[in-house]
Design goal:
The protein is 22% helix and 34% strand. The protein has 253 residues and is of the alpha+beta class. The protein has a six-stranded mixed sheet with strand order 3-4-2-1-12-11. The protein has a six-stranded mixed sheet with strand order 5-6-7-8-10-9. The protein starts with 7 loop residues before the first strand and ends with a strand.
Length: 253
């Protein structure tokens, strides 16, 4: 019996900063779309992406007529899912996933630890041609305080036990805000996750601030897949498209 060749999957994760440059000086979502397209990623994890914002829509002439995640997806990623986390008078934002592959199902888990800071986990199941199993992907944006992050990481671990089969391919990516690497150990020990940059380069990537990355906020964790290449996108044009440097990772299923 001839075994099938490993399936390659290109992943990108980025905190979109709601479509604005660092310090909110300029609306740059159209530029961001072109940069994301150029990566040729198969799956894109988005954090802080807008669903709507009525005031900004009136203010900016190049504001898209569709939700930001749909504008970014355009014709490149025919499948997308959105998890609305924060709702306010002008609109809403949250996490989103763009995929070149069918999204079989998705669910957004509210892991907020207070009224002011809304957070969520967007769990999608993908059908990837050539793969013998469904791929579980979870887009993450955790809180700014260590206490909240620990509680949210526990919910993530519980979710993995409850909803992800032990042998299923799994990718968990996004903005963990874990600059002290406190929950990193929890995810490794409780959920048996491996971080892609740690695996391929010996250390977790620095991603914030984008123009001179110092803090290790963004991660790509995997289980039952093999990371083969991992890159921090911290040069232009990325350095002025968000306050976080995106992460590009290639894995083999």
């Amino acid at each position: 019996m001839v075994e099938s060749a490993p399936v390659a999957l290109r992943v990108l994760t980025i905190n979109t900063h709601k479509g604005f440059t660092p310090l909110n000086r300029r609306f740059i979502l159209p530029e961001l779309r072109e940069a994301v397209r150029a990566t040729e990623a198969d799956v894109v994890f988005l954090q802080e992406v807008l669903g709507s914002h009525a005031r900004h829509a009136r203010r900016y002439s190049n504001w898209p007529g569709t939700p930001h995640y749909e504008f970014l997806a355009d014709s490149i990623w025919p499948q997308f899912a959105y998890g609305r986390n924060s709702v306010y008078p002008d609109g809403d934002h949250g996490n989103a996933l763009l995929s070149k592959f069918p999204i079989r199902s998705y669910e957004n888990l509210d892991v907020s630890s207070g009224k002011e800071e809304r957070r969520g986990l967007l769990h999608c199941i993908l059908e990837v041609p050539g793969s013998h199993a469904e791929i579980h992907v979870i887009c993450v944006h955790l809180g700014l305080t260590e206490r909240h992050r620990r509680a949210q990481a526990k919910v993530l671990c519980q979710r993995l036990v409850k909803a992800v089969p032990p042998g299923a391919p799994l990718i968990v990516a996004g903005d963990f805000n874990d600059w002290r690497l406190q929950i990193d150990r929890m995810l490794r020990e409780r959920a048996h996750l491996r971080e892609a940059f740690e695996t391929t380069q010996g250390g977790v990537a620095r991603t914030f601030p984008a123009r001179f990355p110092v803090l290790r906020l963004d991660r790509v964790y995997v289980r039952n897949v093999t990371p083969v290449q991992a890159t921090v996108l911290s040069t232009r044009p990325w350095s002025h498209l968000s306050d976080h440097a995106p992460l590009a990772v290639e894995v083999r299923l």
